[in-house]
Design a protein that fits this description.
The protein is an alpha/beta fold. The chain contains 6 helices and 13 strands. It has one domain: Purple Acid Phosphatase, chain A, domain 2 (4-Layer Sandwich). The protein starts with a strand and ends with a strand. InterPro entries: Calcineurin-like_PHP, Metallo-depent_PP-like.
Length: 243
């Protein structure tokens, strides 16, 4: 299976027209655009199946964590699969898909990490949660991170004859997050899910704006982010992997 991998296209800042390539599947690992705009783009940009996991930027411009996800799913055409804590089997490969988020423990002091991320990250000013559309709080992300980890733990423990690919927006381990995420703000970008990673054949992610294709503990870790205008991320427009 030939898989075209993208993340962090940030179409809200500049357009992108994918090259014509021979792909059986497209994986969009989050931060494609804000709200449902990335889904509309994917509907039109690709004819083959697409797996799309929302990133944090899909919820920007006042997006609500639950309602924006629902609207994205409703906007998706039949070949575009917007997934969150869901499994999709294509041929002999199962894809386990979750945004992941963070529990702020990955830098060793979750209280300090929560405070610094809450103080500096735009997510907590522009994303909404809860019945009253209140501003996002760190505890909201912790709760969703717990759900995500439980989902992956449960699914990875199930017997499966074929290949297993995990798709998240957030980076699973610090070692492949790249530079620029030092200090406790790094807790907003990566988890420390080495135990889960070792149970997957491949793990596709985004969020860090750092391209990587490497193997750790038998798991192939892949990220192909375009990033913000002018940012050097190592992005390859026709990046295809074979699964």
């Amino acid at each position: 299976m030939k898989v075209l991998v993208y993340s962090d296209l940030h179409l809200e800042f500049r357009a992108f027209e994918p090259p014509q390539v021979d792909a059986d599947l497209v994986v969009l690992a989050g931060d494609i655009s804000v709200r449902g705009q990335g889904v509309t783009w994917a509907n039109q940009a690709f004819n083959c199946p697409v797996i799309y996991v929302p990133g944090n930027h899909e919820y920007y411009k006042g997006g609500h964590l639950d309602r924006t996800l629902l609207k994205m799913k409703e906007a998706a055409e039949e070949h575009v699969h917007v997934l969150e804590n869901e499994c999709l089997v294509i041929g002999d490969t199962r894809f386990l898909v979750t945004t992941a988020w963070t529990d702020f423990t990955s830098t060793g002091d979750y209280k300090r990490a929560m405070y610094e991320c809450w103080e500096w990250m735009s997510d907590f000013r522009v994303i909404r949660s809860g019945e009253g559309f209140r501003k996002l709080r760190p505890v909201d992300l912790i709760a969703r991170n717990i759900v995500a980890r439980d989902f992956l733990t449960t699914e990875l423990a199930k017997d499966f004859e074929g290949k297993t690919v995990v798709i998240t927006h957030h980076c699973p381990i610090q070692e492949v997050a790249g530079n620029g995420h030092e200090g406790h703000l790094g807790a907003a970008y990566f988890n420390q899910w080495h135990d889960l990673m070792a149970q997957a054949g491949a793990w596709i992610f985004g969020h860090t704006h750092y391209a990587v294709d490497t193997v750790v503990s038998g798991c192939r870790l892949i990220s192909n982010p375009r990033g913000y205008p002018g940012e050097k991320t190592g992005f390859v427009p026709d990046f295809i992997i074979e699964i």
